[in-house]
């Protein structure tokens, strides 16, 4: 053997060892994320973009997120199935969209007369929320994480004032999901209509009322131009979006990238709540300035009480379906009771005090 | 030259090149953090521990935080000076502790009759808060970040009920800072007493009332055993702690570690608010169960109004001191007005609705 050959072989061996060590630490991953929203959807889309940016920066490019909006994957409500099947590695959506498939997913977005965002985050992270959510998603090979909160959603835009329960009888309203069922119990005819058709439907009296989100997102759809009564919320007091991660994908990530992914999801979820507060305040100031016709209304006490009772009845039915549903409903009820007792002497007392001084 | 020597030299050269590349990406940093709190201080100390853990895990050990509690560095209120001088790389404290040194630091913790935690985070991150804060800290070679929120602090424990402004005249109360000045304006004699002596001072009538934090931290000091009246808060509606980073230390970190550090601070700050909600709710439930003597009280309207007016007067004086103080006070006032208008139709309306149904 010539010196030259020995040398090459030795150098190659050393280089290979170093490269292998480095490669292990430096292996690169790209996760494909399907979101339910269209491209550049305000606030929700800002959240996934911020999340992806944080992941890439913190991992120095070792972990990248490629976001596909609904116009790309064409299946806004197929996110659950696509992540479960591994067609996508991750999803960004809302848990209650899957209630037709897995009824217990309903409970992890927001419940009528339920917890506020802060209370609900406390339930997720320091109560039983996260464990219960994983229990529901584990059979589907997915891990679910809080994905951003809208804050309290408004009760909707009405063209006529609601003065009593009588005014709700036969009223045609766009309100989907569990809240729609509650409204149906007190006489409303709930319907669901695609967002793009909502304005025209309300303008032409195809519907009498419409619930959407809150000032920031509602303002863009223009309801304030054709409805005078904007009702305060009760049905989705803390709408939490959702990150979904395919479990096999999660397990193949090294632990530093898992923590980076988890932390980026957590902080961008919190940030969405803070951004929602900011954007809603801006939009509400604009509505007040440009549309003096708009009046804020609370539903009358008898309407709230009837909806509260209807909600209790439906929750009891939902809890009766199986053991996990029962445990979730009980956990949320007992947590809410305790946390609200404190919110009442802190947040509520303070806000009411401030409303009185001048 | 023998084959053996040639081989060794070549291998060494290759190994050195690889090692150098790896070293650049893998340089390790340890940042020393001084916190104002004693070791294992509940909630506040949990926040710095979580922060350090996240940083280490996300950086895979490339960035470590070594926390020194007050018993180690012996200078709980020297954190500003120590981080400024570079004796420590980071600090965890509260901005208003430095108001004697730099008056404008006062505004970044919480202001009487000011924003709630959610509103204040919106001001920091989507309003002018962060820019104004950096403007105040830049001349001191430090960057300041939100460091965790207690939520609304309670108005304090009183041995006698406050029925009118008359009952406040000459009342001796432990209440520090700007809120103490507001209380002084309406007739209270504010004093500051070390935490370890508070219980005895209240028991022996050296003081008539004491403000501390909220149920979770108050319960441990035992005030509920000797005072019946627990007043709702107004003076620190969103006490935000603070991370301080020495600017030179920040600048020498590679950008991925900067983002890791920033994100870990941001998420552990948010988490502290959520943990505070959880712990306060638990503690309040325990107080209610074990101390039925404790009654929640709001100050009477005339007392709130007098404190509100005194606060406005003092704020005006503070704003008059220099240009940056003026801009901060104006920014907070205008942001509060807009954000609270929205909070009133969302959070406050909802909580009041829920308080009425049964």
UniProtKB/TrEMBL annotation, chains A, B:
Binding residues annotated for substrate, in chain numbering: 153, 174, 211, 236
Keywords tagged on the record: Metal-binding, Signal
Residues passing through the membrane, by range: none
GO cellular component, one term: tripartite ATP-independent periplasmic transporter complex
Signal sequence bounds: 1-25
GO terms for biological process, alphabetical: transmembrane transport
Residues the entry annotates as binding Na(+): 212
Domain of life: Bacteria
MF annotations from Gene Ontology: metal ion binding
InterPro entries noted in UniProt: DctP_fam, SBP_TakP-like, TRAP_DctP_sf
Keyword Transcription: no
Protein name, entry field: ABC transporter substrate-binding protein
Keyword Signal recorded: yes
């Amino acid at each position: 053997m010539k010196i030259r050959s020995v040398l090459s072989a030795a150098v190659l061996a050393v280089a290979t060892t170093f490269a292998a060590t480095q490669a292990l630490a430096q292996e690169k991953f790209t996760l494909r994320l399907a979101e339910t929203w269209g491209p550049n959807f305000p606030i929700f889309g800002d959240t996934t973009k911020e999340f992806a940016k944080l992941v890439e920066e913190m991992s120095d490019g070792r972990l990248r997120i490629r976001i596909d909006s609904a116009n790309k994957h064409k299946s806004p409500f197929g996110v659950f199935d696509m992540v479960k099947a591994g067609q996508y590695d991750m999803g960004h959506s809302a848990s209650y969209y899957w209630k037709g498939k897995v009824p217990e997913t309903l409970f992890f977005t927001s419940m009528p007369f339920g917890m506020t965002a802060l209370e609900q985050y406390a339930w997720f992270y320091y109560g039983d929320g996260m464990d219960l959510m994983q229990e529901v998603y584990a059979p589907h090979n997915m891990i679910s994480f809080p994905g951003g909160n809208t804050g309290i959603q408004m009760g909707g835009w009405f063209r006529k004032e609601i003065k009593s329960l009588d005014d709700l009888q036969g009223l045609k309203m766009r309100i989907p999901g569990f809240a729609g069922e509650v409204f149906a119990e007190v006489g409303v005819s709930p319907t669901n209509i695609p967002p793009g058709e909502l304005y025209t439907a309300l303008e032409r009296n195809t519907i009498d009322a419409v619930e959407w989100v809150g000032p920031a997102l509602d303002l863009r759809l223009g309801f304030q131009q054709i409805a005078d009564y904007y009702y305060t919320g009760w049905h989705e007091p803390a709408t939490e979006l959702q990150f979904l991660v395919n479990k096999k994908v999660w397990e193949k990530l090294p632990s530093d990238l898992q923590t980076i992914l988890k932390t980026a999801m957590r902080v961008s979820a919190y940030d969405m709540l803070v951004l929602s507060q900011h954007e809603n305040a801006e939009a509400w100031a604009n509505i007040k300035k440009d549309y003096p016709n708009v009046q804020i209304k609370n539903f009358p006490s008898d309407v709230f009480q009837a909806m509260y009772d209807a909600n209790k009845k439906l929750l009891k039915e939902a809890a009766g379906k199986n053991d996990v549903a029962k445990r979730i409903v009980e956990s949320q009820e007992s947590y809410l009771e305790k946390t609200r007792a404190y919110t009442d002497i802190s947040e509520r007392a303070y806000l009411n005090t401030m409303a009185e001084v001048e």
